Amino acid sequence: MKTSPDRQPLTQAPIHRRSFLGMLAAGAAVIGVPSLLSACGGTASTGSSNAGGVALTSDHLPTYVPITYVEPDYPSVNGSVPGFETIPTELVQSIKAPPGKGSSFTAMTPLWGTPPPTSGNAYYAAVDEMLGSTLKFQIADGNEYGTVLATALAAPKDLPDWVSVPTWNIPPRFATEVVPNVFQDITQYVSGDKIKKWPNLANIPTAAWKYSSFDGKVYGLPFPTGVINDAIFYRDDVLTGLGITPDVTNGQDLIDLMVEVTDPATKRYGAHDMWTAATIIHGVVPKWKVGDDGQLLHRVETEEYRAALEWNAAVFASGAVHPDVDNTWAKQLFWDGEVVILNDGIGSWHENLAQMLSTNPTWSQKPFAPFGADGGEPTYFKGNPCNIFSFLKKTDDEDRILELLDLANVIAAPFGTVEFDLIANGVEGVHYERGADGLPVPTDLAKTELQPTYMFLVDGPETNARVQYPGFVKASSEFSQLAAGYAEEPVFWGLQISEPDQYASIGQPFEDLEKDISRGRKSITDLDAAVATWKSAGGDELRGFYQHLLDES
Amino acid sequence: MSTTTEAKAPEPAGVAASTSSTRKPRPAVRKIKLSTRLKRDRSMLLMTLPAVLLLVVFAYIPMMGNVIAWQKFSPYTGFFFSPWVGWENFVRVFSNPQFLNAVENTLFITLFQIVFYFPVPIVLALLLNSVLSPRLKTSIQAIVYLPHFFSWVLVITIFQQMFGGAGLISQALRAAGREPLTIMSNPDTFLVLVTSQAIWKDAGWGIIIFLAALSTVDPSQYEAAAVDGAGKWRRMWHITLPALRPVIILLLILRLGDALTVGFEQLYLQRDAVGAARSEVIDTYVYFQGVQYGDWGFAAAAGLMKGVVSLALVLGANKLAHVFGEAGVYKKS
C-alpha cells in the first residue's frame, strides 16, 4: 500500500489538540499497514480499509483549499461556526457560467415544513437557470424521512439520481450493503488535487469528506456543520420578568434555578427532560472512552454516565420538570413559557426566533455559558463533522456524474457569493425586497416557494449570518466560540465505522433505562445489571471490535 | 334460529356464510365427478375468483415472507441470497428477557381488555336499544361513533390535556389545594389508562353489530313475554341476550384472533411516559428489533410466534363455541 505522508489532507486538516483522529490518520499514513482483511480484499481501486470500513490511508480524500470571500466578524475558533454581522453588498460570482449541460436530474431531500410546489416554482426555475440543468425534487417529510429512505433504498432501480441522507436516518447495514451497491464511488473524481476543478467543493473541510467516506472511498457529498451541536437554553425574557439574573456555574446551581422558577399554579416549570444537558455538563462521551490503561470503556460503563443519570434523576425528583414531558412537544412548551430551561440543538435557536418573534417581539432565549457539573471546566465532545450528506446513484455514465459534481460545486458556494445568495434568498423583487437597512425582507411568495432544499444535498462550510434577528449573530457566535474552546474529539471522531450488525440493538435497553432512572421508575443500581446484560449480549465483543480498530492505529 | 344467522349481519357474516356454504354440500356431492362439479358451480366459482385473487396477492404471497424468520435476512440482499440460520432466531427470541416481558405485557393487556372492554359495547347497545325516540337514538349513536375516527395521537393528546399532570383537571385540583393527577405517567395504573382510552375511542363503534343483532328480534316476542307477565329483566334475560349470544361469541372469537394486537400506536406514543417495563408489547418489540435495528430475521421470528399463538387462540375459542352449541367462526359439516 502507498505511504504518502506528504499528501495535503493531513497537513491541512484542522488542528485539534489531543486529536486521536490526527494520530490515527498520521500513524496510518506513515506506516501504511493494511489490515489482513483489506490485504486479502485484493484490488481495491482506492485507499485501503480495515474490518470496520475505516480507511487506513487518507489519499482518497480531497485536498482542502479554503476560500474566504468575506472576513467573519466572529472567526471560527477550534471548529466553531464563523459569524457575520452584516450581509456584504458586493457579491462575488464564484462560477462564471452555468455549468450544466441541460440534463434533468431527480433529487430526494427531507423538509421540516410545508413542501413547496415543485412545478411552476420561480425559485427552482431561477436556481435551475443558474445551474444550467434541471433538478427535480422529491421532497419528503423530514420526520418520516427515515422510513421513506429505507423504502427507497430497498428498490435501488427507482432511486432518484441524488439522494440526501441525514446521518440519524441511516438504516442498519447502510455502510456495508447499501453504499457500495447503490451509490456512486466518486473518489476517482474528487481525491487529492482533482477536487480543485470544483473550488467550492474543495472549500469543504477534510473532516467532512472523511466522514462521507466509506471503506476508504469517497461516496458522500457533505453538508458540513459546526462542532458544537447542543446547548442548554433558558428563556431570558421570562427570567428577567421574574427579576432573576442567572448565575449558574455547576450542576446544583442549575437545579436550584429550575426549582426557583417553577410555579405549577401558573403552569411554569423549570425544566424539560434534561438528559442531554446532563451528558454535556458531566462530559459523557458519545460512545467510547479510552481508559487509563488504554482499554476502551463504553459510555454506559463510565463514571460520567452514572453521574449524569444521578443528576438527571435529581432534576426530576426536585419537582421542577414539567409533568407532561413525555407527551407534549418540548419546543411548544418552551415557546409558551411553560418550560423555562431546555436543552436543544444550536440550530433551534434561530428557528425559535423565526417562529416566535413575529407574534411576540420580546420573546427571547439564551444559552448558559458552558460549565462542568462540579463547577470545573466542561468538556464538549465534538459532534459529527457533517450531520447530513448526499449520495449519487450508481451509474456507468461518467458524463452524468461529472455534471452532477458541477452542479454540486454551484450549490456549495460559500457565503458572500451570488450563488449562495440566490439559494438562500431567492430572486430579488420576487422572493424578497430590500428593506430600509438593506436586509432582504421575504415576500409572501418566498414563504410558499422558498424552503431549504439545496443545502440538504451539499453545502459549503456552515456560516452564521442571520442578521435579521437583532443581537443573534453576536450572542450565538460568542457562545459557539466559547464552547468550541472546550471542544474535544472523542475517540473515533469523524470516522464512518461499520459495526457488525448483530450488535445493533444491544444498546436499546439503555435508551429506556435513561428514561426509567431519570423518572424514578428504576434506581441507579439497575444500571449495573443493565451493563452486565449488555456485556454478555455482545458488549464485550463489540469492545473487542473497537479495541482492534484502536490498536491498529 | 333464523334470527341468529341473520344477526351475523355485517362483515364477519360474509366469512361465516361463505365457509359454511362451500362446506355444507360436500358429503352429498362427493360421488359427482370433479369436472361435473366445476361445470355446475362455474358461475359461483367465477364470482369468488376476485376475492380469492385478492387473498392470494395480498395475504398468501406476502405470508411467504415469513421465511426470513429462518434467515439472517437483509432487505438489500433479499430472500434468495440471505443465509439460512435454522432455528437460531427462535432460540434468541425465547432466551431474550425483553421479549418475555413484552409477551407478559401483551397478555396482561389482552386479558384485562377482554374482561373490562369487551362487554362495554354490549351494555351500550342494550341501553341504546331501550331509547325510544329515534332522533335521540341516532344523535347518541353519532356522538359515540365519532371518537373512532380520531387518530391515536389525537386521543392521547385529549387525554393528556384533560388528565395530564399539567392538564385541566390537575390545574383545577391544584387551585383547590389538592394533589394533581399522575395517571398519565403512572406505570402501575397504565393498564387502566390504556383500557379507558380504548373504550373512549372504540366502544361506540363496537355497538354497531350488536344493535344490528338487536334490531332483528321480533317485537312480538317481547309483546308475548309481556303478556305472560315477564318484567324488564326477564325479557332481557330470556329474549334479548339469547338473540345476542351467537354474535357475542362470534365477536369474542374474532377478538381473540387479534388479541395479541393491542394497539401499536397507542402504546408506542405513551412508552416514554410510563417506561418500557409496562408498555412494551410484542408489536412494539418487533418494530424496534426489525425496523429500528435491522434485525429482520429475529423480528420476523418474534412476530411469527404471535401469529401462532393467535391462531391457537382462535381455534381453541371456536372449539369452545361448538361445545356451547354455537356455530362460531366456522364449523366442519
Keywords for this entry:
heterodimer, A: 553 residues, alpha/beta, four-stranded mixed beta sheet, 17 strands, 13% strand, disordered N terminus, B: 333 residues, mainly alpha, 19 helices, 71% helix, flat
Describe what you observe in this structure:
The complex is a heterodimer of chains A (553) and B (333). With 553 residues, chain A is an alpha/beta fold. Chain A has helices at 8-12, 20-31, 36-41, 122-131, 145-153, 174-182, 187-190, 199-202, 206-211, 236-241, 251-261, 275-281, 303-317, 330-336, 348-356, 398-411, 418-425, 444-449, 472-485, 508-518, 525-552, and strands at 104-111, 134-141, 162-166, 213-214, 217-218, 220-224, 230-234, 269-271, 288-290, 296-298, 339-345, 366-367, 380-381, 386-392, 432-434, 440-442, 487-488. In chain A, the strands form six sheets. Chain A has a five-stranded mixed sheet. Chain A has a four-stranded mixed sheet with strand order 8-11-7-12, sandwiched between helices. In chain A, strand 4 and strand 5 (217-218) form a beta hairpin. In chain A, helix 12 (275-281) crosses helix 13 (303-317) and helix 20 packs antiparallel against helix 21 (525-552). The longest helix of chain A is centred in the C-terminal third of the chain and has 28 residues, at 525-552. The radius of gyration of chain A is 24 Å and the shape is globular. The two termini of chain A are 15 Å apart. Mean pLDDT of chain A is 86; it is low at 1-47. Chain B has 333 residues and is mainly α. Chain B is 71% helix and 0% strand. Chain B is built from 19 helices and no strands. The longest helix of chain B has 28 residues, at 296-323. Chain B is flat, with a radius of gyration of 24 Å. The interface between A and B is large, with 34 and 37 residues.
